[in-house]
Amino acid sequence: MDDLQYGTRNKRGDWTPNRPVEPAPLFDFPPRIKAILKWLPHYFLPWNVIFAVSAVAYWAWIIPPVESMQSIRLGWIGWLYAVNALCVLLFYGAFELHLYVLRRQENRFKYNGKFPAEQRSKAFWFESQNIDNILRTFLSGVTIWTGVEVVMLWAYANGHAPWLSFAERPWTLALVALAVPVIHEFHFFCIHRLIHTPLLYKWVHSVHHNSVNPSPWSSLSMHPVEHLLYFATVFYHLILPSNPVVMLYQLHYAGFGAIPGHVGFDKVEVGENGLVDSHAYAHYLHHKYFEVNYGDALIPLDKWFGTWHDGSPEGEARMQQRYRKRKEKLAARKARMEARGATK
Fold first, then answer.
1. What per-residue confidence (pLDDT) applies to 343?
2. In this structure, is the dihedral angle defined by the CA atoms of residues 104, 106, 111 and 116, taken in order, positive or negative?
3. What is the DSSP letter of 103?
């Protein structure tokens, strides 16, 4: 597969797609019907369908009977943790094995030409990005994932969350299920801006940003506070007209859905000629530049708030201009403070 048909590679080996990132047309005004219809399959395939199917499979084969979930007991909680951990190991591990261990597509479509295993850093436990990311994923990530899941299932089992039947309210549940990615995007953008405030960034979010060159295990490598904020996206279903299966879809969209944005490759090769878009470039630019693309462009929140970077030279120029303005403001504030100090 020739990745240079789709992008360019610089002298460092970093690959950049030819086309800048485009926000989804879903919230354009006036509405662009043709653009929405053309984009709509990407809303479902392949990732959202995978997460929805996994939610249905969980409900069918993994989730304990409702009677068991009416009380908090170690047995079913431990069972859920074990299954979640195994699924993360298999799903995340498959990407890690294919792209980073066996390197089956070498550095084709890889944004950063280097591999984390080749770079040691004291920012990570044992100076290894992979070991650090894996430990944080299972010690904190899967634990809090399971904890949030247990709280929601207990709430449904005890009538503390609205539980609609698919047979009685199919259209309502279909609409809520369709909104799951939108809910995630809104929630993610809000908590992401919050943890980029100086204090929370220093003590919480910097853990995730240590992975400047993200790989699959970076997806859930976070501080426990960030894990709690991140998975809190399911708590919307305590008030929405919803259902445990739709709630699980929301949870899996967060848990398994963190992978596409962190694989570090624009496209994953499947077979000899197959390509699956990761849609990771917008979030990769966030890891690279820190203060752009707080969302994933489903809702154009970054455009509305002036933090959008589409990967183009124009996007780079806008980002640099914003940095210059902020630097000038900080310099002016410092000068004012020094002037006040001199007059005292």
1. 72
2. positive
3. -
* 211 within 8 A of 287, measured Cβ to Cβ: yes
SS3 29: coil
CA distances (Å), 297 to each of 29, 233, 308, in order?
Answer: 15, 18, 9
Q: Which residues pair with 265 in a beta bridge?
A: 110
Tell me the pLDDT band of 344, cut-offs 50, 70 and 90: low
**Token pair for residue 27?**
């919230």
**Cα radius of gyration (the chain):** 22
pLDDT higher than threshold 90 for residue 342: no
Q: What confidence tens digit (pLDDT) does each residue in 70-123 have? A: 999 999 999 999 999 999 999 999 999 999 999 999 999 999 999 998 889 999
The token duo for 138 is 């299972």
Q: Which residues contact 215 (CB under 8 A, 6 or more apart)?
A: 96, 99, 100, 115, 116, 129, 130, 133, 262, 263, 264
**CA proximity to 250, closest of 171, 173, 180, 148:** 180
Q: Which is nearest to 284 in space by CA: 304, 301, 263, 305?
A: 263
Distance CA 268, CA 109 (A): 8
- 50 closest CA partner among 170, 169, 146, 181: 181
Tokens of 140: 């904190």
pTM (2 d.p.):
0.95
Q: What is the pLDDT of residues 279-322, one digit of tens each?
A: 999 999 999 999 999 999 999 999 999 999 999 999 999 999 98
DSSP 255-312: HTTTTGGGSSBSEEEETTTEEEE---HHHHHHHHHSSS-SS-SSS-HHHHHT----SS
Q: What does the alpha-carbon distance between residue 264 and residue 112 come to, in Å, rounded to a whole number?
A: 7
Residue 110 φ then ψ, to 5°: -90, 125
